[in-house]
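Lab notebook: predicted structure, single chain.

Context: the supervisor wants predicted structures on file for every construct in the current expression panel, including those that have not yet been purified. This is the next one on the list. No modifications to the sequence; it matches the entry in the shared construct table.
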Amino acid sequence: MIEHIRVDEAIFELRPDFAVLVMTAHGMKNGPTDERARGWLAEASARAVQTEKIDAWKDAYRAFGAKPQRTRPSVDALTRRLPLPEINRIVDAYNSVSVTHALPVGGEDLDRYAGPARLIRAGGDEASEEALGTPEPGEVIWRDDLGVTCRRWNWRQVARTRLTEETVNGLFLLERLEPMTLEELKVAGEELAELLTELSPGVRITSRVISAGN
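Prediction complete. Output recorded below exactly as produced.
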């Protein structure tokens, strides 16, 4: 499945420096926040800063007509909610990686997808949940065969694919813009894989990077 996830060429025309590390994790064991997860959240909260990496995402939002002060990139929103909220162990893990590295990280329930994930510029007629509203033409969205899975690049995901305590198979999207390097993106992915493995020793993880020309 991971090999079918794609980023439309229109995204690279908008931001040639965009890259996403796609990771699938099969056989996860989730549960309520525990002391390990609280430690990850506390450490990330203590290290969180507003950086030029977050500013790059604000610029990317403006490039497709969004107002980042109203609908914030996910990592910007997280750093404004410190200390980080407790959700569940796996969400806590990827939120801590997101804030530590100042990059957006999305976690999804892979079993609730219909067809592969793809990042596109919206036509404006894609099916979406009522709470999120219909995407505007040209807006950057993640979607599957049923419709929108995340609006405004990484602003807010639909409830349908949300990662819950019952999730067994997950999809994680670690999204990078310059000045973050591809090496930093790789390190963030390795850290997330380590946390997922600590939570679920038998988890099976695969990953690939999608970037311009790759």
